[in-house]
Amino acid sequence: MTDDSTITHEAFKQFECDKFSLIAQEYDRAIAVVTSQVDEAILDAVGTKSGIRLLDVACGTGWLSAAALKRQAIVTGLDFAEKMVAIARERCPQGSFHHGDAENLTFESGQFEAVVCNLGILHFPNPEKAIAESFRVLKPGGRYAFTCWTPPTRNPFMALILGSVQTYGSMDVDLPSGPPLFRFGDPTECEMVLSAQGFTQVSVRELPIKWTFSTPEDVMPKIIVSSARLGSMLAMQSDEQRRNIENAIIEGASKYVTKNGVEIPASVMLAVGYKP
Length: 276
What we know:
Order of helices and strands: HHHHEHEHEEHEHHEHHHEE
InterPro entries: Methyltransf_11, SAM-dependent_MTases_sf
CATH architecture: 3-Layer(aba) Sandwich
Strand content: 15-25%
Largest sheet: 8 strands, mixed
Low-confidence stretches: none
Helix content: 40-55%
Protein name: Methyltransferase domain-containing protein
Domain Methyltransferase type: 55-146
Shape: globular
CATH class: Alpha Beta
Radius of gyration: 18 Å
Keywords: Methyltransferase, Transferase
Mean pLDDT: 95
Structural class: alpha/beta
Number of domains: 1
Pfam families: Methyltransf_11
Number of strands: 8
């Protein structure tokens, strides 16, 4: 007999898988460009170099994998959205990409010298299980690194989007419940969870990112078509709520107009652990 938590986890996982497959192309053109800004920092954190066997968990459309391949790493990627995997294979023909579940990796224990996960941890119903699996497939002496968004108090982009929804719309929309979006935006939480799974020499630091758009009017439409939960939350508002939210986002984004377009600051936490 399955309990309610199992049902909730599976509903969340299925939503994320279906949604990311649906938006894979738009995600690749928009959000993946933004999140790739921290690729080099992630690879540096796990000592990526020529010949190292690296697993990219929740590889998406393969931007981080491509950066690792440029360093001549031996790259394996995994994602639960098949269309994401298909794009990653096109981008990185030298890599090996698989459709699979981060919480139930099919790889042998001790197979990789580095495991990375760029902004995937918030998409796992059971992050602890995913971290434990990454620990299992690492060789002793290997390193693991993941990133996650920082909360709106330190993240102007998230403050703008979620603040506009909270003020003019509803956060209570009919989406499968998932883990807290900003849980790992807390350094203490990152340290505690990694340590609990056996990692040592844990370090956590914040990295800046910029969201870029051509105009303030582009922000909300681009988020709707290229993100899973944020996009769905925006799309599920009433017509009046959407108009008011969009106007608020346009007004807020206008403050970040530069000669290069709109550049809205944000940040992620980079958490790193060592397998003794």
